[in-house]
Amino acid sequence: MYRKIVMFTVVMFYGCMSASAQKDSLLDALDQTAPPVSEYVDATFKSSRLVNFQTVETTGKRTLDFRISHRFALLNGGINTLYGLDGPANLRFGLEYSYDGRLQAGIGRTAYQKMYDGFLKYKLLRQTIDNSMPVTITLLTCMFVTADKDPAASFTGYDHYQYFTSRMSYNYQILIARKFSDHLSLQIAPTMLHYNLVENITDHNDIFAITGMARYKLNKRMALTGEYAYRLSNYSQTMSQYHNSAALALEIETGGHVFQVVLTNSYGILENQTIAYTQNNWMKEQVMLGFNIGRFFTL
Amino acid sequence: MTIGIGLTFLLNSCYYDKFQELHPEINTACDSATATWSGDVNKIVNAYCIGCHGAAGSGGVSLNSYDNVKAAAAGDKLMNALTGNGVPSMPPNTHLDDCKIGSIKHWIKSGMPNN
């Protein structure tokens, strides 16, 4: 009996030792062959749009983002217009989806200029915690088609939208962002806009700009955000009638929602409306209230 | 394949059109000094304003008749709105070009005739 117990103990111990050694050697092998895995920084921004401009973020895997954006009229209408809430208001509905969390597609419709839009966005590089990749880079291409009628056609006899292609415009951006800390994220984006139709012979169809944005997290639920577009190219003799687009927002995150209260000088919501053709000027107190709501659904 | 079709569509739909080049026959020289109610002002109002400022006018401003436009113009309300002078600029979604604003200004200065 004693011999049996000793043998069992020896076998068990040997077995354990043997298994342990095998495990160690397997782990050693893994350590030697597998490259170190970098963990990616998450939540550089809380949603795919800061205010009007797109962030480097894509929605999560198999996640649908239903977005509603609303802009009221100018605040300087005073109490008579309830500080712009009487309207006329601009509204965009959008649906954005990503299957793998990196490639995202979206569609939307904006009331202003009856504009339909679609975009593709791909998160090319992701910032890592160990800083081996210091920034996140996302490529963005958007297409816009207006369904509006040319208001002047009724009395000039010439329709700006005689050709369907004249309704189309595009936006291309390289979005480069870095999350500097749990509180601060910054983004910069070289931008090219293309309009198939412009008015004057001296106008340029391609417009270059650079956009910048920042997010400062106040606490677990709230953040202050801001964005600005600087127009680089001299695209029209009437360019001085328009102003650089700028916006400030308070972002509030609740379960499954991101809610943004917005102050902006842009009545338009899409890049082809805001970057080159913002008509209002912050310096003249021509700003308007608005809000964005994003609701996420996992499909 | 879908991406390929999409890219083909995108690349083939890129144009560099300019309206003045497409229609060189349009006389772009502005002659607001000959503006009339029926020939210019009424057409501009119908095209750009009446959508919101019809019979039940937005903000209490109705521009659906000669008398209503004349009343708005006489009180400077119309020009202030078109130029954004102290009030939100109208129309809210576009700038009227200088020629159209000049035509309305000339019509007002001429005494707002129903011609």
Strand content of chain A: 35-45%
Low-confidence runs of chain A? 5-23
* Quaternary state of the chains: heterodimer
Q: Tally the helices of chain A: what do you get?
A: 3
Largest sheet of chain A: 12 strands, antiparallel, barrel
CATH class of the largest domain in chain A: Mainly Beta
Calculate the mean pLDDT score of chain A and round it: 87
* CATH homologous superfamily annotation of the largest domain in chain A: monomeric porin ompg
The helix fraction of chain B, in percent, is 40-55%
Largest interface: A-B, 43 and 29 residues
- Count every beta strand of chain A, where a strand is a DSSP E run of 2 or more residues: 13
Summarize the structure.
With 299 residues, chain A is mainly β. Chain A has helices at residues 2-33, 153-156, 271-274; strands spanning 63-74, 90-98, 103-110, 115-125, 136-146, 168-179, 184-195, 197-198, 206-217, 222-231, 246-254, 257-264, 288-298. Chain A has a twelve-stranded antiparallel barrel with strand order 1-2-3-4-5-6-7-9-10-11-12-13.
What does this structure look like?
The complex is a heterodimer of chains A (299) and B (115). Chain A has 299 residues and is mostly beta strands. Chain A folds into two domains: 1-33; 63-298, Porin (Beta Barrel), CATH 2.40.160.40. Chain A is 13% helix and 42% strand. Chain A has helices spanning 2-33, 153-156, 271-274; strands spanning 63-74, 90-98, 103-110, 115-125, 136-146, 168-179, 184-195, 197-198, 206-217, 222-231, 246-254, 257-264, 288-298. Chain A has a twelve-stranded antiparallel β-barrel. Mean pLDDT of chain A is 87; it is low at 5-23. Chain B has 115 residues and is an all-alpha fold. Chain B has a domain at 31-109. Chain B has helices at 2-12, 19-22, 37-48, 66-74, 77-83, 98-109, and one strand at 17-18. In chain B, α3 crosses α6 (98-109). The interface between A and B is large, with 43 and 29 residues. β8 of chain A pairs parallel with β1 (17-18) of chain B, so a sheet runs across the interface.
